[in-house]
Each structure stands twice: as C-alpha cells, then as structure tokens.
Amino acid sequence: MRTAALYRYTLPMDSGVILRNQRLQTREGWIVELRDGEKTGRGEIAPLPEFSTESAEQAGEQAQTALVAWQAGETVDLNALYPSVAFGISMAMLELDGGLPKEGNYSAAPLCSGDPDDLVQKLAELDGDKVAKIKVGMYEAVRDGMVANMFLEAIPDLKLRLDANRGWTPLKGQQFAKYVNPAYRDRIAFLEEPCKKPEDSLAFAAEHGIAIAWDETVREPGFEVEALPGVAAIVIKPTLTGSVDYCLSLIEQAHEKGLVAVISSSLETSLGLNQLARLAAWKTPGTVPGLDTMQLFKAQLETPWPGCTLPVTPLQDLGKIWCSEQ
User: Fold this and answer.
1) What is the mean pLDDT of the chain?
2) What whole-number distance in Å separates Cα of residue 211 and Cα of residue 209?
3) Known active-site residue 135
4) How many CB atoms lie within 10 A of CB 307?
5) How confident is the model at residue 107 (pLDDT cuts 50, 70, 90)?
6) Dist. CA 11–CA 1, nearest whole Å
7) Which residues, 6 or more positions from 285, have their beta carbon under 8 angstroms from its beta carbon?
8) In sequence order, which ranges of the chain are alpha helices (DSSP H)?
9) Residue 203 and residue 200: Cα distance in Å, rounded?
10) Which of 184, 189, 262, 321, by CA, is between 20 and 30 Å from 255?
C-alpha cells in the first residue's frame, strides 16, 4: 500500500549567513516521505530565500497536491512543479525504487575565509585533490583578486573555485584579474558567473585567461549546454534546478561536451546534503562536489553528515504536517 507524508522543519543557522539582501537565521523546508510496502524513500523540499521563486508555503501546498496524486497511483508531472518540489519528490521516488546508491562523495570543497593557515589545515584532512572555494563579488574586486592570489601563492597545489554571483561589471572583472598573477590563473578551476550578462562573462574569460562556469545561467529558460571558449563547467544546484532526471540530463550533456559538472548545495539540511553526496558519487565521480555548507547550520536533521558534531534532530520529533492516511 502506498502512503505519503510531509514533515515541516525549521533549523537554526549560523548568525553570519547572508543571502543577497537578507540574513538567514533559520532554514525552513519540508521532508517528503514515501512508503510502498516495506520500502521507504525520502526527499527534501527546501526553497532558498532570495534564489527560489517559490516560498516554503507555496512549495508545501503544491507538494501535498502532487503527493495525493502519487498515492492514488497517478503519474506526477514533475516538470510542472516548482524546482524544489520537483527535486524533493523525485529524490524520494528514486530512493524508494532503490535507484540512489548508498555510497556518497563527502570530499566537499571547503569554503575559504581570510587565513591561508586555516585552509591548509582543512585541506590536509581531505583525500585527493586540494580544491577550495572563495565567494567573491561581495567586497571590492581588487581585494578579491589579492585574496585569491594570496591563497594560490601560499598553497602551490591548490585549485580554486570562485563564485561571483554575477556581481561584477566588466571593469570590476578587470580590476580583479589585475591582482591575480598570470602564472596562477590556470589553477583557478573556474569562476562562476563573474558578470551579470553571460556575454560579459565570456569576454572576461577570453581577455584574462580565467575559466568560467555557468551557475545562474543553467537555471534560465532555454538554457542549452554548449562547449564555448572559456567555459569549463556547469554548476548544478538541484533544489533550484528541478527533478533528478532533469539534473542528470544536464550532467550527461556537460560530459558529452567535455565540461565538468559540479553538484552543489542550496543550503539543504544534513538529510538532503547526504543525498546530494550520494548523487555526486554516482553521477560525477572524480569531481569534488560543492557541499561544504553544514558548517553554516547549528543543528542537523535525521541523517548525520560525516564528521559533523552538531546535534541531530530526529524526523519523528518534527511530527507529520500532512499524511495521505489522514
């Protein structure tokens, strides 16, 4: 017999988490739980404030409607759902069917602060390639360039991923590049979306010899994966992108075009983050995913993240907000 349930969670965040124009004090979302006989599958629906078009309330309402249809044996049109709802429900379906491997890739690229010594310690604890990430575009471009250059100079085998969130004008991009030693630029694995306009980002890559990656562009209507000069990767944030099948199709297209595909977090809880790590191990083996976000929480949910000592809130403590058996 098929049953479906929705749990609502609210977890405290670190006080320093800022998303564009607001400070995120709590993370809110839903956990989908599907049961079919002895099998169980779960997924997380977590619209990200400032980035998702849907609110948590809208996502919860739509999820209930879709789950009623699923419980009745009807086909759920995932493409018609909000991205966060499509991903959460499709992940629960995948897990229910036994399609999501148990092994995960937990070698997340650590987020850098201003101290190279701290980063050296973090990287020493990781197996494999030394890959780290810096958020740029929030301060002066000159400062960003000096910080990136400092890390690359201090750690000779470091590969840096940078994320500007479309924060630079072409002039600011030039100011950044001016302070990055040309000898180090090939160790910038990619810079996500340096400029607001994709054509300006492509021009930045061509002018400065720094590879770029598409992030926000991946989620725009009509996006097609293309092997363009200067483009090294696409960053896929499933919660903001859509169903598992759609995300997998993007990964396959990227690999066919010779691009790197990186699975990245949208501040999911430890439950959702673990599933992303499993998805990454399965479909992007050999690529370090962008999942170093557990440090931004003050608590975990149901499934602990390896090595994390934060308290874990069991799913049963949340209580079911909605259940198809009601």
Assistant:
1) 93
2) 6
3) yes
4) 8
5) confident
6) 32
7) 105
8) 56-71, 83-96, 116-124, 141-154, 170-178, 198-208, 238-241, 244-256, 270-283
9) 5
10) 184
Q: Residue 261 and residue 213: Cα distance in Å, rounded?
A: 9
What pLDDT, in 10s, does the model give residues 4-46?
999 999 999 987 677 777 788 999 999 999 999 999 999 999 9
**Three-state DSSP state, 137:** coil
d(C-alpha 106, C-alpha 126), whole Å: 9
For the chain, percent helix, then strand, then coil, each to nearest 5?
A: 40, 25, 40
Which tokens is 309 given? 């000592």
Q: How many CB atoms are closer than 10 A to CB 2?
A: 14
Find out whether 213 and 190 touch, Cβ atoms under 8 Å. yes
From 122, 135, 298, 320, the catalytic residue:
135
Residue 237: alpha-carbon gap to chain centroid: 4
Contact 189, 161 (CB under 8 A): yes
Mean predicted confidence (pLDDT) in 259-267: 97
- 132 SS3 class: strand
CB distance 145 to 177 below 8 Å: yes
What type of residue is 100?
Answer: L
39 included as an active-site residue = no
Pairwise CA distance, residues 113 & 173, whole Å: 21
Place of tokens 């789950």: 67
Q: Which two tokens stand for residue 235?
A: 């960053």
| Closest to 192 (Cα-Cα) out of 171, 218, 154 | 218
d(CA 261, CA 240): 15
253 token code pair? 């297209």
- Catalytic residue from among 130, 133, 172, 237: 237
CA atoms within 13 A on the CB side of 258: 5
Predicted TM-score (pTM) above 0.90: yes
